[in-house]
Amino acid sequence: MGQGRDRRELYRLGERLHRSATEVVDEYRAAVERVRTLAEELRDRETQASLDEVPVDRLSDVTDGRLRVTALEAAGFRTVGQVHRAEAYELLRAPGIGRQSADQAKVAAAQLARAAREATAVRIDPDRRDPAGTGLVTELFPFVQAGPGLLGAQRSAEQASARLAVALADGAPARSALRLRLLGRARREAALAAVAAVAEVLTGAEQGRADEVFAQAAVDLLRRPSSPDQAWLEFETRAAEFYTVLGQLAEEALRRVPAESSEGHLPDRLARAVRGLELDESLLRVSLRGYQVFGARYALVQRRTILGDEMGLGKTIQAIAAMAHLAAGGERHFLVVCPASVLVNWLREIESRSRLTAHRVHGTHRGTALLEWRHEGGVAVTTFEGLRYLDGLPAGAAPATAMVVVDEAHYVKNPQTLRARKVRALTDGCERVLFLTGTVMENRVEEFRALLSYLQPGLLPPYRPWEPPLGAEAFRHAVAPAYLRRNQSDVLSELPLLVHSDEWQEFSAADEDAYRQAVAAANFPAMRRAAYAVPEQSAKLRRLGEIVAEAVAAGEKVLVFSYFRDVLTAAQKMFGERVPVLLGPLSGRTEPGERQQVVDRFGAAPGPAVLLAQIQVGGIGLNLQAASVVVLCEPQVKPALEQQAVARAHRMGQTRRVRVHRLLTPDSVDQRLLRLLARKQDLFDAYARRSDAAEASPEALDISEPSLARQIIEAEQQRLAEQAPSGR
To answer: Ranges for the Helicase C-terminal domain (predicted)?
Structure first.
């Protein structure tokens, strides 16, 4: 009788666990279905809006000219969207439209609609806030709040529910000793085996604290924002996480990213090896996108690599995920080396996005932090200059580091500098090294080679100018084991529109005088900022004021970038009290902690705000997606600087269209600079924007700033000299 009672109790506990697991599964599926329904509603609306912009004569193209659209146009059907929505009888009412033409029109419109739908991704617009958008952010809210733990709980619940459903059904006869004895031998053994399976599931559930996990999941799934405004506020501050969850729950709502794009166009064999690693995300607090999972796996499988993703794709979280995977496997010590400007951001990201402990090995308490890292483990975060603190540890006292991450790795592209030598000494003794940089090369292909030499020096043959360069295919295969890059346009379907405008403004008389003086003196920096020489009469400064005034009136946040501190000072004086929140200028003299505080204030401002920053400071390492307007006060000598600056705003998490205004002056250094840099930009794209970049002659990329400045100065001196007889 004792065994019977034990089996009955076991069965009762199994039934209880099955009920709680099944409730979680059912609630989760219902929540996912609500998300998918609302996402499809938004997608249908976006598709229809795009069809309403397609002229009706496109139907003729689809039918190879067989459909005559003049009758449709005469009847008032101007767009494909109108035809797609119309019923057949509405088309038949139009003079000259018969049954065959109506059917052809509907079929052709449906074909275009399918193509448009496949190309359309769900975009949640915080400025629209219609019922479907509000409903979607409300339904996504509990998933974002709960984090990846909710998905883990659902998977555990699904497994437990499925196993228990079978085991409880097969083991039911074992609850009664009498009934069990009446069964045939085979059925009796099956019933007892089923009860044993129930016991196994219960044991695993107890070890995994399944009761608590399922109860928490049930609470999480019922969580709702206190109001629609709270849901939208959460979306605007955590848009990247909302879209990540949306992609997980309703993959079809976001444009499907081709595998070759998310995998950086790596050779198939290497991509398969990377996919073969199961990433342990148990120590992460946030969900990852598919391409981010692949990036972390790549770093782990290839061990010594460059992650060169375009700005805004989350290189930091991919590095954290790789470290978290190793930590889940028992590794204890990790090291991040970064510029001082992003040190605070690294500390925040590690603590908020993972369960790893971050130690700030920088500033007055660096010694204490270093000792805590040595004894407790975690992630030590220091600067390039701070690497000397590690030298202060007694011989043999430095812990074995499981992974070294070097952020903004292009800082060490010159192997002759002290910081580069420190990094090489550090990385030479570490099995896993991950370089992060969205700009692996600015002017010379040798810079790319230099970074590779830290990691896997044998990948590329030494450069010999008398030998022909590697072809595209050979170069792609050569660097693939150490270089992975993905671009925003390839992997982020939800990014809002990026609109570039070149704003041409004539010199004022005072500015032109200043420009001529700068050209005569061969002063390249003065030439570049001559348009601001007399702020009270500057046409560029006046246009900057107009752009900012329009943005402030619309409630938008604005980033203003210039290479020159005095240009930003002039802008600051001009704005005065006309801007509700005016921050900066951020410059090289701004302390790293203060930079982050300024960025935080900019993002937290409830209305319009303007942030002034030197482009070489504000364009690196700062997340500024609160802004939807970017102004570049002058073109930059290095295309990467402009790209980085724009990417501070147009990045994962941006919810609004981003407008970029570049202020230019005709017949000046600006116009000549753009012409000379056009080819340099093409070469930069060929090398740095894709993993399968081709290698042209290295000297073709050697457009250094001094040589470029000399070319422009000489050309402008000649141009102005030729104009002199005509009156100046």
So the answer is: 540-702
